[in-house]
Amino acid sequence: MNEKKIVFSGVQPTGNLHLGNYLGALKNFVSLQKEMKCIYCVVDLHAITTFQKPSELENNVLETVATFLATGINPSKSIIFNQSAVSGHAELAWILNCVSRIGWLNRMTQFKDKAGSDKEKASVGLYIYPNLMAADILLYKASHVPVGADQKQHLELSRDIAQKFNNDFNCKDFFPLPEPLIPKNVSRVMSLRDGTKKMSKSEESDYSRINLKDSAEEIDKKIKKAKSDSEPIPESLKSLEKKHEAFNLISIYSELSKKSISKVLNEMSGKEYSFLKSKLSELLISEIIPVGKEIKRLLADRSHLKQVLQKGAQKANIIAEENLKNIREKVGLI
Ligand code: AQP
Questions:
Q1: Is the Cβ atom of 211 under 6 angstroms away from ligand 1?
Q2: Which of 51, 86, 174, 287 has the lowest tally of Cβ within 10 angstroms?
Q3: Angle formed by the axes of helices 273-299 and 216-225, to 10°?
Q4: Is there a single domain that holds both residue 129 and residue 241?
Q5: Same-domain check for residues 32 and 146
Q6: Are 171 and 312 within one domain?
Q7: Is 201 known to be catalytic?
Q8: Statement to judge: residues 175 and 258 lie in one domain
Q9: Residue 47 half-sphere exposure, CB side, CA atoms within 13 Å?
Q10: Which of 8, 9, 12, 184 maximizes ligand 1 atoms within 8 Å of its Cβ, making it the mutation to test the pocket?
């Protein structure tokens, strides 16, 4: 294991985790455990940038931990904890709020998407969310951050903030510039109802996503109802350029079947999308159903899940405090 390479990533406890979280992030989290020191965080402070019912938030935190474990994150190899249990995240976020620039935040497209047309009514937390994300990563001096493509812009901002801190406080290389690790094939799983929007927990229609806890019947029904195309599957990738929903289904199939998109097109061109859909349902059911069963089994023992979080928070806190001591010193805080 290369001790210098530190992986950090987080998932918001905002509801059912879905196929996008699984293919865009969680599968990568699991495989990175073999090569690097990994720190995986349930980012509850990010979740409250939009209102969360307190009783639901606790359940969602535990469900996210259960999902981490069910997908194969191993708490004896990786640190698993919830963000609010390590106060260094909030402290460093404040310091970085003073390093980051308003002009940089104004360019963040996720804020524009999530705040919608009435930006004045969005929380200040939602606006400065990318600074907290930079703090999450830099608190552990993480070198690598596995994320879906939707987080690329925030990662670039984290690098800018790290660079500016190193320049402002005259400490070259103090913070490493974190590298995003974005999956090559399906970096952005799109909604099953609208191929121009990413699959998301907060999208109103449950038919837009495959949840990791869905039953086989639900998966089958959602894939059958998913938008595709009235023309048969084409031979070339170019013909899929404007067919976002069809391209999305083919990409998911390509990832799960471990076949390249061109191989899938070779095998399926000329066939109707119903053919692809039935193959895709089979693959999804065999991959997702065992994960969902394990999540449900783990959720029956809430005290075990809380213990995993507590132990992880203790380990995370040791690293965070050590780094914060040096950060305070650099800034001149006594
Ligand atoms: N559709 C997606 N395709 C690929 N990757 C995705 N991720 C999320 N959606 C997709 C990746 O999953 C990780 C955790 O994301 P998150 O839940 O913390 O936040 P999010 O990106 O805001 O996800 P949602 O589902 O859209 O949540 P809500 O609806 O609550 O805002 C990240 O690495 C993300 O890239």
A1: no
A2: 51
A3: 150
A4: no
A5: yes
A6: yes
A7: yes
A8: no
A9: 25
A10: 12
Whether ligand 1 lies within 6 angstroms of the CB of 196 is answered as no
CATH of the domain at 94: 3.40.50.620
Q: Which residues pair with 144 in a beta bridge?
A: 7, 179
Q: Is the CB of 151 under 6 A from ligand 1?
A: yes
Q: Alpha-carbon distance 288 to 311, whole Å? A: 28
Residues 91 and 215 grouped into a single domain: no
Reported pTM: 0.95
Query: How many residues are present in the chain?
Result: 334
Amino acid at 60: N
Is residue 10 within a helix (H) or strand (E), and if so which, with residue range? strand 6-11
- The range of the structural domain enclosing residue 237 comes to 206-296
In a domain? residue 193: no
Identify whether 213 is a catalytic site residue: no
Query: What is the position in ligand 1's atom list of the atom closest to the CA of 147?
Result: 33
Confirm whether 318 is domain-assigned. yes
Tens place of pLDDT per residue across the chain (334 aa): 445 699 999 999 998 899 999 999 999 999 999 999 999 999 999 999 999 999 999 999 999 999 999 999 999 999 999 999 999 999 999 999 999 999 999 999 999 988 988 889 999 999 999 999 999 999 999 999 999 999 999 999 999 999 999 999 999 999 999 999 999 888 899 999 999 999 999 899 999 999 999 999 999 999 999 999 999 999 998 999 899 999 999 999 999 999 999 999 999 999 999 999 999 999 999 999 999 999 999 999 999 999 999 999 999 999 999 999 999 999 999 9
Residue 200 located in a structural domain: no
Which of 5, 197, 201, 259 does the annotation list as catalytic? 201
